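Hey team,

Sharing the Thiol-disulfide isomerase/thioredoxin run so nobody has to redo it. Sequence (205 residues) first:
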Amino acid sequence: MKENKLTTFIILLGAISIVTYVFFDKLNNDQVETMGLNLFLSQNYLTTEKNNTNDLDKKGILPGDLALDFTLPIWGENEKVSLSDHNGNFVVVNMWASWCPPCRDEMPYLIQFHEEYEGENVQVLGVNMTTQERNLEVVAQFIEDFQIPFPTLLDERGEVGFGYQVMAIPMTLIIAPDGRIVERHQGYVNYELLKNYYIKARENY
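Structure output:
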């Protein structure tokens, strides 16, 4: 039963991702950046969610929740890593697939952010939606094309996509040192948006 639900979810996720692909492909970068920034400014999750929750230990997928933990293999290494391994640091989790144009467009900004802030207890993690890929060769090509310097984790069974209800990609989470989600951003991000999210998170933690 669980496997059937997971399969259904993955099929639904793929369909929605195609719709999102078309949507973002029609928007230019300026439109997407403005949309994302307006969303950030109009929804101050950092204060409202934190102040309104009655259960500070609640695990979930929304801002204010403790992030659901996961353990995934690292691309190119014979080991796995858990999200909770990075408790004590700010963590940026970016979920992507190689065929997704907004994922390709935003990757240079994630790399720029990583290089700018890696000395400030900030960890960027890429999570490849492996169940949506044709094969691992296209994943390898994507990583090589961008020379991604931060760890890429493989969601080989769709556990992260299912657990976090990722209906479209890219998706980016900003997680505070205490393991709490402070931002859940659906869609394309650029460097300035990532920087704004991070600065706002530091101000509140």
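The chain is about 45% helix and 20% strand.

Ping me if you want the raw files.
A.
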